[in-house]
Design goal:
Layout: H1 8-141, H2 144-162
Length: 163
């Protein structure tokens, strides 16, 4: 028989090997099962993280789309407000121009009325002065007979002047 069978180290080695073989099988199952469970958990966590990332990307894309739409709407509103302001400014300018034309026309009418009134006053004063001068001239150069003849001729001409 070989000599190593007689040595205690050999039998300790055999006992350790038997122990390891006996313990290894159940431990191997437990260890592999534990590693499989851990791998499954990690896979599930990775899948959940991937789903969360995809959802976050969808939400981000939706947010960016809404932001672009809001920016477009804001630009539309600004353009509309600018157009409305320009239209209102043009309308105000037209209204102001019309008001100034009306006021100018009213001023011209008032001036014309004042001119007409002034001319009428001047005519009235001129007529009064002419009548007064005519009276003085007539009174100085007419006698009763000539005065009566002038009055008769004026009375005769009166119906023709009234027509």
């Amino acid at each position: 028989m070989p000599r190593f069978f007689a040595q205690p180290e050999f039998w300790v080695l055999v006992a350790v090997l038997v122990f390891v073989v006996l313990v290894w099988r159940p431990a191997k199952r437990t260890l592999i099962s534990s590693l499989d469970d851990r791998a499954t958990r990690i896979r599930d966590e990775l899948e959940a993280a991937r789903n969360l990332r995809e959802e976050a990307e969808r939400i981000l894309a939706d947010h960016q789309r809404r932001q672009r739409e809001a920016a477009g709407e804001a630009e539309t509103i600004i353009a509309h407000a600018q157009a409305e302001a320009e239209r209102m400014a043009a309308q105000s300018a037209r209204d102001l121009e019309a008001m100034l034309r009306r006021r100018r026309q009213l001023a011209l009418e008032r001036i014309a009325q004042e001119e007409a009134r002034a001319v009428a006053e001047i005519r009235a004063v001129t007529v009064d002065v002419a009548i007064s001068a005519a009276r003085q001239i007539i009174a100085a150069g007419l006698d009763e007979r000539r005065g009566a003849a002038l009055i008769d001729s004026a009375i005769a001409a009166l119906p023709h002047q009234l027509q």
